[in-house]
């Protein structure tokens, strides 16, 4: 249970990452990923990387530069342009629905205009799920200049699209539906220089 805790990725650039374990039975037709990040990096960095043997960018949340997020599903991506942060935590949620190909992106509890991505696709289940690195091969192939440096918290993955009310609840750290990856019952393995510390914000 990592409630009120964070992962601190201390070095920049870094070869460290956190490996997450999720039990997924069947390919994902819908999903939602949420997390909080705190970083002063201006170069590209990966937040959440979900790779299968068939596709290294099966699900990827990447921040290529300040004021922009990229959301990948099955190797294709859409870009969401956001106001540049003011040196504070950023909470993001990204959800995707195969039937419509609709990609949603929420920043700090607010939805951005929806975009179309990979309609009819299914996300594979035999996955390596990493925080802090972008996989260019299954479980590896890292470029340190896409590595994350800073603090990460409140990481969740659901095998459903969350409702707007639940998206806002995730931002406010309220009670949430059962998830395949949940911050309060996370199975993880730290690889390299990552430290679990108490959260410094109120």
Automatic annotation (TrEMBL):
Q: Which InterPro entries match?
A: ConA-like_dom_sf, Pentaxin_CS, Pentraxin_domain, PTX_dom
Q: Summarize subunit and interaction data from the UniProt record for this chain.
A: Homopentamer. Pentaxin (or pentraxin) have a discoid arrangement of 5 non-covalently bound subunits.
Which Cys-Cys disulphide bridges does the record give?
A: 34-93
- Annotated Pfam families: Pentaxin (PF00354)
Highest taxon, organism lineage = Eukaryota
Q: Where would I find the Pentraxin (PTX) domain in this sequence?
A: 3-202
Its recorded name reads Pentraxin family member
Q: Which PROSITE patterns match?
A: PTX_1, PTX_2
**Compartments reported by the entry:** Secreted
Enumerate the GO terms in the molecular function aspect.
complement component C1q complex binding; metal ion binding
Q: Which cofactor does it need?
A: Ca(2+)
Q: Which UniProt keywords apply?
A: Acute phase, Calcium, Disulfide bond, Metal-binding, Secreted, Signal
> What gene does the UniProt entry assign to this protein?
Apcs
Q: Name one GO cellular component term.
A: extracellular space
